[in-house]
Here is the input.
Amino acid sequence: MSIIRLEHVSRLYGFGDATAVALDDVSLEIEPGEFVAVMGPSGSGKSTLMNILGLLDRPTHGTYQLHDRAVARLRANQRAKVRRDMVGFVFQSFNLLPRLRVIENVALPLAYKGLLPGRRQKKAADMLERVGLGDRAFYFPSQLSGGQTQRAAIARALVNNPKIIIADEPTGNLDSAGSLLVMELLAEIHRSGNTILFVTHNPELTRYATRVVYMHDGAIVHDEQTALGEVAATARKVLYTLPVQTEDHDLAGISTLMKHVPSKSDVKPEPKAKSKAKTTKTTPKTKKRAPRKAKK
Here is the structure.
């Protein structure tokens, strides 16, 4: 039984000649317990798809069933309730409230659910322990590193025990070490039974997925199952286009290349070009002065 089912879903913005098609006749089924990566170039419709799946937006056409319930045409307050109880969000920009402490940010969804303050505090503290931030509970978000901030955002997404976790570029603002930590945490959450959908531009992160969906121009153009720990076949073609001995060798080559690419500050203007420009400007001036002396 599918936990998510989209049938011929389209999302249009604007009207008349200014209409833009963000999603174009998308049909998709996701089973409980899947770890789905969504890939595609910028503007391909990935975030729009995530917003519809997470009930932050509604389709212009088509049907959406979430856990066998039709949710495409629900009113705003009904969508908010379903979203609160069934979906947890992890955003690229973290979206923690800067004036609240970490534990208060994590407990915020429980306040909307109506839990008493003591119960909220206890559940939020337990969730922070789960993601390894028990000792950072009373810090402010500005006092955390990028990886710690994203783990706090994951704790907030999990605190309501949602069936589905939607992560839109969860490693986009992190370095390689922070990205690895966040993906390992999502993998652990997946092993505990959650359904996870995440958007990524990094083919390497498809190692964590059991399925990869590719989008282009608002449509799903390819959908493949993949084994955990392996880069998806189609993503591998994008990442490893040159014949190399091993993947480690390829990554080492990319690292070496990046070290030798000069930055803008390293590029200095050539002095010869300036001197040539000056000589070309002075020659016509001397020609103009000669006839003036002749007239006098």
Notes: Residues 271-295 form the longest helix (25 residues). The beta strands are 4-13, 20-30, 35-39, 61-66, 69-70, 87-91, 164-168, 195-199, 211-216, 219-225. The longest strand covers residues 20-30. Residues 96 and 235 are 32 Å apart (CA to CA).
